[in-house]
Structures are given as C-alpha cells and as structure tokens.
Amino acid sequence: MAASLRFRDLLIRRLMAPTPQGLSLSLRPMSSKAQEEAPKEAPDHSYESLRVTAAQKHILHVQLNRPEKRNAINRACWREMVECFSKIAQDPDCRAVVISGAGKLFTSGIDLTDMASDILQPQGDDVARISWQLRNLISRYQESFNVIEKCPKPVIAAIHGACIGAGVDLVTACDIRYCAQDTFFQVKEVDIGLAADLGTLQRLPKVIGNQSLVNELAFTSRKMMADEALGSGLVSRVFPNKEDMLEAAFTLAEEISTKSPVAVQSTKVNLIYSRNHSVAESLNYTATWNMSMLQTQDIVKSVQATLEKKDLKSVNFSKL
Hints:
Blueprint: H1 2-16, H2 32-37, E1 50-56, E2 59-64, H3 75-89, E3 96-101, H4 112-120, H5 127-150, E4 155-159, E5 162-164, H6 166-172, E6 176-180, E7 184-186, H7 200-208, H8 211-220, E8 224-225, H9 226-232, E9 237-239, H10 242-257, H11 261-275, H12 279-293, H13 297-307
Parallel strand pairs: 2-3, 3-4, 4-6, 5-7, 6-9
Antiparallel strand pairs: 1-2, 7-8
C-alpha cells in the first residue's frame, strides 16, 4: 500500500509539472536535401508508384513517386498504398511516418487515363452485376486511404504544389498536415461528373468543423489556397517552401518518435474512436483500453527519468 501511494504521488507530480510550449528546438534532423541525396531504402518496401525510405531512426518517409505523371494515382498506387501501410502498421521499429509527393506537386488526383476502363466500362451482364462490381471497386479504392487512418503510427502529410481530388481524400486520412505556401487544395470530383467517394465528404467536415465551407468547396471545386487552409484548420502550419516544410515535418516526426509508442499509438486509436462516437461511449472505450495499457513499463520508465531529472528523450522504450 505504501509503495502504491508513493507511485501515485510520483504520477501526480509528473502530470502537474509544467509542459514546455511548442516543439524542442534541439532536434536537428537531416535536411530534406540531405535525405534526397542519401536516402536509405526501407527493407521490404519495393513499389512501382511509391518510394519508402528510412528517414531517421523510427521514422519512415513514404513518397508518391510518379513525378513524370504529376503523382497521379493509378492502379498500382491504389494497391500499393494498402500493402505499404499494412506493413508499416506491423513494423515494430516504425513510430512515425511522413508522406509527401516527389517532384513539383503532391498529387494531381486520380489517373483517369489509367483507370478509365474500370470506371467507364465496368464488367457485368446486367445492371445489378455491373453495380456490384463498381461497388467492390470503390470499396477497394476507399481502403487505400482507410489504411492510413487504421495504421496506429501517426502519419504526417507534407504537401506542396497541388493537392487535387483523391489527394484531398488521402491527406484528410492523415493525422497531421503541413503544407508549403505554394499549395492549393481542390475537391475536384464535381468537375468530372461525380461525387467524391473516397473519404473527403466524410472526413473533411470533421477536420475543419465548417460544413458551409465544405459544401462550398465540394459544390464548386474551387481552389483553397494555403493561407485559407491554415485558417480553416485543414493544415496546422504553412512554410515558405517544400524544403522548409519537409524539415519541419521530420522534426515533428522525430519529436513524436521519442515518446512512448504505447502512449502515442493508444492516443491515435482513442482519438479516432472518439471522433466517431459519443463522449460517454468514448470514455468507456478509453477505460477499457487503458485497463491494460496502464500496466506498461513505459510509465515507470518515464516517471523514473523525471525523478532523476533526465531528458525524457533519453528513455529507451521497447519496440511495439
């Protein structure tokens, strides 16, 4: 009992201690230029449309890698996004992910030339069978971005240039969004005669919390520039150029990677659950979740480091 009370007091003092504002300025990751010059390919990640590199310890960099096609999302990309993030979700060494676009822009959206036959000439003997095939097709494409949200590792979208159509579906499935000053966002689907069906209409209202603005963007396909994206809450920071943005994204990823992976990944799971459920349901879910997660040694390690006045970034947390 005495030991339990002492441990409780330690936790209370830890939780009541003042928290420094902002991110640590002592973290100096490789610049984006250095990463481009000497990337280390991530093992077991070989794709046609994506490039995955080990940016730093515990951090993976996923690039949309079709710059000659303006990073348009083709059949290979739909398939490889699922494979890539399913592997990342199970990778015990990875604690954070940065996703960006190679070349001059993030993505121009769906590659219509590659996918025209799937959309315009679906297979089937009658309306019912054609509809069934189309529904299966749409569901598979939805999973290509759902897998980002399902991945327990925080995913930071680093966006530059254009983020059009399916690109908005993609980034709204990410946890944090940074962009460069030259970025614009465009819900483009109405201009090609369809309603967005891969996540934008479901996630964007919850991301920015302004249904009127979402309706305006979706009905008109007008461009949302970087400053408006910042003001609306779509992105949390805007940077002068791609290089500064990537450096900041990796600094943030490194900051996250120094935290307890049990704490960080549990936080992501509970944030997403809470977004889709009532406060009462979410509190009950968190209580059930933490009845096991509170038994982690990460708490003991963190408290001990605090009592010994050590930098919390020096704590060696086990893989998860």
